Amino acid sequence: LLEEVVISDVTQMQFDKLDDDDDNDDKHPWPYALDDTEAMVICTSAVPQISKRSVLKAMLKIPLNILTPKKKAINFRDLQFKYRPGQYPEMVDYVGQKKQIDFAKKLGVKHVVLVSSMGGLDTNNFLNQIGKDKEGNGHGDILIWKRMAEKYLCESGLQYTIIHPGGLVDTEPSKMELVLDVDDALMQREKKSISRGDVANLCIASLTESVGRSVAFDCVGEEVAAVDGGGEPVAVKGAEDVLREFLTTGKTADYTLEPGTQSTMT
Fold first, then answer.
1. What percent of the chain has pLDDT over 70?
2. Could you tell me which residues are beta bridge partners of residue 41?
3. Helices in the chain by DSSP H: which ranges?
4. Most buried one in 158, 232, 233, 254, CB count within 10 A?
5. Cβ–Cβ < 8 Å for 93, 150
C-alpha cells in the first residue's frame, strides 16, 4: 500500500545551476520527502492525439471500402496523429527523461528502471512517423528519442534496467508467458503485445532480481496452451522467475547498434 504520494515537477529543476558557493541558489529544489529514495521507475512518454479530420475522412471511405473485395471497412493507417505543442517526443522522451535521470543522481538513487519501447532499431517503424507530415517533416521519431535517452542512462554511472515492451494492452496480467530477448529480435514475431500489468510486474522484479547488474531487454507476452487442449491454461512463470532466468543468459541490449540496424537474432 502507498503510504505517501509526492508530486514534483522535475522539468522545472535546474540541477546544472546548483552551486554550493552561491547562497542565492536553491540547494534543495525537490520535496524533502524524496530524500533517501533508493530506486526510480521512469515510465513517461509522449502521447499523440488523433486528428479528428482524419477520422472523418476514414468514415467517409467506409461505404466504398465495404464494396471493395479484400478491403477493410476502415484502414487504420489512414488515421493521423499529432502531438500537442511542447509535448513532442524530443521534449518528453529525451529532454524530460534526461531531467529525471539527472534528478536520480542528485537524490543518490541506486537503481533506475526505465520503461521504453521495442522497435528502437527500426527507423521505419510507424511510431516514428507519428507527428510528421507526408514529406517527413515535423515532430516525430519517438523511438529514436527514446533510445537516445536510454544511452544517456547507460552513460550516467547509475545501475539501470531498461525494459522495451511490445504493444501495451489492457489485459489481465500473469495470464501469458513472458518472453524476453534483446535488440528487436522479438519484432519478428506475429504477435508483439504485452499486458501493462506484466510490464509493471517486470519493473518490480527488476528492483529485486537484477541487484548490482545493469541490463536492457525486450519483452512480449505469449499465449499458453490449455491442459489437454481444453480447460484452464497451464500456470505461467512469474515476472521474477522469468527475469532471473533471463539474467543467467548474460544477454543485454547492444547500444553500439544504431537505428536502422535491426538484429536478426532469434
1. 90
2. 113
3. 52-60, 62-67, 89, 97-107, 126-129, 142-154, 196-209, 239-247
4. 158
5. no
Active site amino acids? 117
Q: Which conformational region is residue 141 in: left (phi greater than 0), alpha (psi within -120 to 50 degrees), or beta?
A: left
Backbone angles phi, psi at 148, to 5 degrees: -65, -40
Report CA-CA distances (Å) from 5 to 1, 13, 37, 44, 240: 11, 19, 13, 17, 26
Helix 196-209, helix 239-247: angle, nearest 10 = 50
Burial 207-222 (b: 16+ CB within 10 A, else e): eebbeeeebbbbbbbe
Say if strands 193-195 and 167-169 run parallel, antiparallel, or are unpaired.
parallel
CA-wise closest residue to 101 among 147, 155, 48: 155
Using CA atoms, how far residue 104 sits from 16, 18, 160, 203, in Å, is 13, 15, 11, 16
The average pLDDT across 10-25 equals: 66
**Nearest-CA neighbor of 38 among 115, 113, 108, 114?**
108
Q: Which backbone phi and psi does 111 adopt, to 5 degrees?
A: -145, 130
Whether 49 and 82 have beta carbons less than 8 Å apart is answered as: yes
In degrees and rounded to multiples of 5, residue 46 shows phi and psi of: -65, 140
Question: Using 50, 70 and 90 to split pLDDT, how confident is the model at 123?
Answer: very high
Q: Collapsing DSSP states into helix, strand and coil, what is residue 129?
A: helix
Q: What is the pLDDT of residues 52-74, one digit of tens each?
A: 888 898 889 998 888 888 888 88
